[in-house]
Amino acid sequence: MRETPRVRACVHHLSGSAMFGLRARPQEQPQSDLRMSFALKIRRQYSSAVVPLFCLLSIASSFFSVASAQTQVNGLDLRPPATPLVAHDPYFSIWSMADRLTDAPTKHWSGVPQELCGIVRIDGKNYRYLGLANRGTQTLPALNEVSSELTPTRNIVIISNSEVELRIEFMTPLFPEDLSIMSRPVTYVQWGVRSLDGHPHDVSLYLDAAGTLAVNDPGEEVTWSRASIDGLNLLRIGSQAQPILKRFGDNVRIDWGWFTIAVPQNEKAEMAAGNQSDRSEFLESGRIPEVDDIEGPRAPQSHYPPAPRLNICLPLGQVGPTPVSRHVLLAYDDIDSVEYMQRRLQPYWRVQFPTFAAMLAAAEQQYPALEARSQKFDTALEADLVRAGGPEYAAIATLAFQQAIAAHKLVVDIDGAPFFMPKENFSNGSISTVDVIYPSAPMFLLLNPKLVEAQLEPVLRYAEMPRWKFPFAPHDLGVYPLANGQQYGGGEVSEENQMPVEESGNILLLVAATAHAEGNADFARRHWPLLTKWAEYLMTNGLDPENQLCTDDFAGHLAHNANLSIKAIEALGAYAQLAVRLGYPQTAEHYAAAAREMAGQWMAMAQDGDHYRLAFDKPGTWSQKYNLVWDRILGLHLFPEEVSAKEIAFYKKRLNPYGLPLDNRATYAKLDWELWTATLAADSDDFQAFVHPVFKFLNGTPDRVPMTDWYDTISAKQVGFQARSVVGGVYVKMLADPSLWAKWASLPESGP
After folding, report:
1. pLDDT class for 302, splitting at 50, 70, 90?
2. Fewer C-beta within 10 Å: the chain N or C terminus?
């Protein structure tokens, strides 16, 4: 056996905001008051070479029993395809992609392992409660998962044996009405342990985190350290290279910044940075040596020396029937988050806190209040989701909540403006794609319309620059995390493969919806010349669109697209509504009259007997007319009710076991659009007829990925896409209830 050098790290306490040599900007040198001083005491430890068995275990997990563990969501049993554990942004996003927490390793939303491993030791016996772990060549036994509950901000799992019950809660306070709290990259993990058999039991909790949490691939070298701030002891791990904002693309993970475990100092935890072998020591003794590995940097895929990890042990002592609780904070400091027009932008929480350490300290101090607020928020939102669309609808929306937020990054521009910038996950990796913002917007229009402004603002500022030369709206701002100009289709050079009617209509509708929610058109006023240019474009080109792409670009180019024409017509009506709010009555009447006339023409052009066509020149075709939903939501009333009624009656005859196909060309569906289309239904029974197959799909799909929005309605298999923000679109049903929309859109920052 090879000796592995390790070091006992006696870290001088760092006050307030100081830790880790934190840099406010990557080009700056560490401030002198941020340096750490170590008193080193070297010891030699013989440790076995632990060869990771992930590859074998991951394969083996696919052969586990297909019997599903059900999760309670709004009182219903639902087997989520994947469950969010730590969901903040496109990089800091950790999921359980199996029936139980112990059936598979935790993974990034893209499916790449980013392991959190949890073990509980009860009277000298070891059991898994999270992820996969082995002892020698044998996988550790897992405690029985008794129940699982998912709420908008929490995932609560109870596991047990005949002696002890362990309650685990992942709580991420994603409160849309409070940008400061929502933008904090902090998830709280809380354990509660109690005896079940009336006897006391000696219990210790263990958690470790792999270096893969901070790199794109396991071959990148990482380094690690520890520190102390007011109230917290910290371990962190990050890439040795720290290539801040150098990597971009779709199927990629962060390779800069620092993943951190923060442990309250009053919990008397044992902590060690840098060595997987500490897990073996815990399995033997229930303790870990508080010494840090100094043989680094090295890669997470390292076999010997053992793979680098962060390790914590929480000895609880004798536990009786009264629950004993502990908690830790999982956090990520990404330093700089995105690049916008060649300048680096920092996360929005920096508006309130100058350093990562200051933010962490506040997060710990506010934990009890945030936990209570989380419970209150969840209860209120779930109740109103049921009121709006029933229990199955509420379960779908609850599962979508964290995913929709975590596909974005909330950053601050140099003038203090918030930018809420989505990544087009597993589609092409674009940043701030307008036709991704559009379907995701209902959730944010409901819960905080300022977030829709924050989605659109960076796009509108870009479109007002001389470099954007086209008379229509752009498609995107680049490839995440680099928002330096459109890359999709013809980019800034050509009109080829653009989405001119799609994106122009999307922005006009969303600006009008924001004004509707806020009761004023101040946001529209700031960009009125640009919005007017796009309204003029739709007036000329929107009724009968030429051969072009729409948001459903995977279906290819289509000329004379009837649903795209609806979008243009509704957008012109929305522009007229904005003009009324801004005090331009003549402009309003001009565009409103045009929209009404175009709606009449549309009905004649799209008529096909008992339904309306996919394309004006294609008899015998059909498509979901989901864009028609704005007629009701914004009160535009451009189309008579008979249009929606006729379409709904026709769609009910086309339902497959797992949903309504997008159109007649294929059996696949878009989950978000299905809920938009369902919202066209005039009565609850018809709405439920479309919701139930979607709920059934989520329960039955064989693909264990964060909710896909593109799947087959016959096989329930994923066609493409996962973890996208567009699932926020399922909240559209809430917008159709004016009282619910007004209630949530006007919430103060203190929440419900």
Report:
1. confident
2. N
